[in-house]
Amino acid sequence: MMPAKNSDRLAVLIDADNAQASGIENLLAEISRYGTASVKRAYGDWTTANLQPWKDSLHRFAIQPIQQFSYTKGKNSTDSSLIIDAMDLLHAGNLDGYCLVSSDSDFTRLATRLRESGATVYGFGEKKTPVPFVSACDKFTYTEILRSNYNGNAEPVTPDLPPLESLLRPAIEDTAREDGWSHLGQVGALLGKNHSSFDTRNYQFSKLSDLARKQPYVEVEERPSGDGKALYVRLKGGTSRSKA
What we know:
Elements: E1 9-15, H1 24-31, E2 36-44, H2 55-60, E3 64-67, H3 77-92, E4 97-101, H4 108-116, E5 120-125, H5 131-136, E6 139-142, H6 164-175, E7 182-183, H7 184-194, H8 208-213, E8 218-225, E9 228-235
Parallel strand pairs: 1-2, 1-4, 2-3, 4-5, 5-6
Antiparallel strand pairs: 7-9, 8-9
């Protein structure tokens, strides 16, 4: 739900051990909504067979492979290499945001540290990604939705997501005016602020307006606004409320 910032300079840092090469084209297209991928690096031990599927993608999308040997069995040296590079890039001060591509909770503290320095952090990982890492990002996108088609049914792409109504109702209530109506854009902004992983595509809708129209407990009204129109929503059966 975050607005695109196409002028932002972004670093795309990929934990190749915990990301799929097959989805890289869709991933980079998604990242382009938020800015320009000025830095693109993928980390792993490129001497191993399990990273073979990545090699064509590295060349095709101009991603720089960063070699990190696994010196000790059972220790993930790839994580350390990515974290060190991220901090070096942060101190160089040439970037606006970071795209951390991994389903590994080891990057939770890195995401927090980058945000503490004023950088925007976009996370990308599978639905198995631990909640702490998801919550540590400004915006987190489950990569399953980048491979899905949206047919308008409300079945979530990731079944372990919170029920939609438990997210949407409070967002409408908290942005409602005295007459009970909320501007849909404000509802979306609050959803994104309170839930970093909220994305209408998780629930099989490409737009928040389409999602809202399909909810039986929500009224949608279109109103003139400037040269165009704006959408407002209200909970059905709701009454006017006053705010302190």
